[in-house]
Write a structure and sequence with these properties.
The protein is an alpha/beta fold. It has eight helices and ten strands. It folds into two domains: 131 residues, Rossmann fold (3-Layer(aba) Sandwich), CATH 3.40.50; 149 residues, Response regulator (Rossmann fold, 3-Layer(aba) Sandwich), CATH 3.40.50. Helix 3 crosses helix 4, helix 5 crosses helix 6 and helix 6 packs across helix 7. Its main location: membrane.
Length: 302
Amino acid sequence: LTLAVVLPQHNLTYPWAWPRVGPAVRLAAAAVNSRRDLLPGFTLGWVFGNSEDRHGVCSEMAAPLVAVDLWLAHHPAAFLGPGHWQLPLVTAGAEAHGFDDKSEEFGLTTRAGPSHRKLGELGVQLHRRFNWTRRALLVYWDERVDDRPYYFTAEGLYVQLPTLRNLTVMDVVFRHGGNFSFIIQEIKAKGRIVYVCCAPDTLRELMLQAEREGLTGGDFAFFYIDTFGASLQGQRFPEPRRPWHRGDPHDARARRAFQAVTIITYKEPENPEYRPFVQRLREEAREHFNFSMRDGLVGQEP
């Protein structure tokens, strides 16, 4: 049996880049092949195809072409990455709300990573728990030229929060060179429960402006959506100072401002099997992919 893997090969900005996923694929195949009861009469192997374009971006054009090539050459039984031909698909991506529809093309898709619908459901539970029944505001970065990760993250909240009766959900979009003062004025006018989706450094600039204009004293609640804990990634993980600390003259103010921020991120597993598995993953990555991982929700190169 052949497993086809279609992932970005070199671009480590993607949590599911091949140097991170490859070690797990190798370990999984070895574990399956070591047990005669799992696939009696078969040996599980895998083939890899790169989904990056010439700019190193995970491409909606390159990935399907690679998938077709793998299908024609190897006739795989399942895919990791984009899938078709009524074959099972396991992916760490496909977070967007649209992938929730299992009635047609996504019926055989299994998501092993986060889904933005679950994030939206968490938002619903927060509003119910604290009786926030009037407004919610989504503030997110969207250049409309990349994979639009912050847009799709905010989408989960945008779709799920209105299931609360009478709750008004509004949004504020900003781009490179955004006017933070304008964004703060929008927040003042539109809502006190604020969900923010952007890069960690951008969040810090936004919160410094919020502190200047008096929004961090307790009247406004800011929730920073940081799925893989990028804002907490320092020399160790989690690094409690990392969200606000940059070693510049603004650190003291940033620390005060971040008292108004709650970071929503994944929780690392605590089951006893997790740490030994991570250690084996690191060894595989170092030996077979020349890639060094460190602590964190996404293994980073040092």
